[in-house]
Amino acid sequence: MTTLSSGFARARRWLRDHPLAFDATLAFCTLVAMICSSFTDPGDGHGPPAFGARTPELFSVLLMTLTAAALVLRRRRPMQVLAVTAALAAVEYVLMDPPAPVVMSTVIALYTVASRTDRPTTWRVGLLTMGGLTAAAMVFGSTPWYSQENFGVFAWTGLASAAGDAVRSRRAFVDAIRERAERAERTREEEARRRVAEERLRIARDLHDVVAHHIALVNVQAGVAAHVMDKRPDQAKEALAHVRDASRSALNELRVTVGLLRQQGDPEAPTEPAPGLAVLGELVATFRNAGLPVEVACADRDRLPAAVDLAAYRVIQEALTNVRKHAGAGARAEVSVVRVGATAEVTVLDNGRGSAGRRPGAGPADGPPGDGDGLDSGGHGLDSGGHGLVGMRERVTALGGALTAGPRYGGGFRVHAILPVEARTGEPERPGTAGGTGLRR
């Protein structure tokens, strides 16, 4: 049984790959069926049909052969094949009595047309073929017009039209499902690539925040240690201790980030909470230890959503890092976090003069900012080659907020971020929400 089924499967695949051979086989089988049926006398309806009771005329055999041969081209010329087979079937009904079953070829041709055209065409062509052949059989046949043979012509041609239309609809349905599946696959691939790109940008921002902050502190404390090493060794030891603490913190955060990247599968939830305004005092203490006086005014720090809390912390961290690197000696910074209705406003101010010649009265830098690693005329990293202020702006705009950064009138620098508190609190948080990169214009 297995061998027989596998043989049928191979034959089916071969015929599907060779449609002309399949049509030729179908035409031959149809010719054999028509010739065998032409030897059968249906009788008067009171007994079974008698095989061999009649012999087809030579003209009928010629018509059956021509219609069967036309079926070989049914896929390439469906309408022409239907016209030829219907015309020859009508000729058989008009000239021969009793007629041979030439209409069998017309039924197959009509099925082919219905399965390969649209529904309106199927209705028009099908009704024309059904009506024409049925009328020819009723008018020119020797049997009464209401005989079952005449209505059989109508039934078989109508069945061919309905079957062909059903096959066409099924084929279109399967093609639509396949097209949707392929489109969904392409969409999944595009979504996966987009998520990978967003995750890479989020990781890049996090690494920049960690490295820029801690390395800036290490650089400052190392300079202090080198300056006072000979005259005030106690102060040098204290500065080196701060260097050790800052470098240890940087290494720990880098280790956690790299460890998450190297894990297989879904990473486990971190055991420590993400940094936020709750640890703002520790962040400010590191800058004060580095010699930057910072005043803080923070209200409702524990009431912000996690994504907004992290974004506010990162904005303050990057802004203070820029102040420490570029504001110059004797600079002071002010940090404020205020809840205003449905938004939280984060402001970082300094009174530094900068190291590259600050220009008092310059307008705010609302254009594309740079990072905290390069210097422009404002001295706060507004060049086009960095990522610090770009990262801040991306964090804020990803949450639907706005950020402005630029020199203050009369000297100093100002970073101001407006973060919506209630706009997205009803949405489920996804990993990397705070670090998303979708910029809303």
Written overview of the protein:
The chain is α+β, with helices and mostly antiparallel strands and 441 residues long. It has 11 helices and 7 strands. It has helices at residues 2-17, 19-38, 58-70, 78-95, 103-116, 119-140, 148-228, 233-262, 280-289, 306-326, 388-398, and strands spanning 40-41, 50-51, 294-298, 333-340, 343-350, 402-407, 413-420. The strands form 2 sheets. Strands 3-4-5-7-6 form a 5-stranded mixed sheet, with helices on one face. It has a two-stranded antiparallel ribbon with strand order 1-2. A hairpin with a 5-residue loop joins strand 6 (402-407) and strand 7 (413-420). Helix 5 (103-116) packs parallel to helix 7 (148-228), helix 7 (148-228) packs antiparallel against helix 8 (233-262) and helix 7 runs parallel beside helix 10 (306-326). The model is unreliable at 355-386 and 423-441 (pLDDT under 50).
Radius of gyration: 43 Å
- Number of strand segments: 7
Count of runs of 4 or more consecutive helical residues: 11
What structural class is derived from the secondary structure elements?
A: alpha+beta
Global shape:
rod-shaped
Overall mean confidence score, pLDDT: 75
Roughly how many Å apart are the termini? 68 Å
Element-by-element helix/strand order: HHEEHHHHHHHEHEEHEE
Strand ordering within the main sheet: 3-4-5-7-6
Oligomer: single chain
**How much β-strand is present in the residues?**
5-15%
The major beta sheet can be summarized as: 5 strands, mixed
Unreliably modeled segments: 355-386, 423-441
What fraction, in percent, of the residue positions are helical? 55-70%
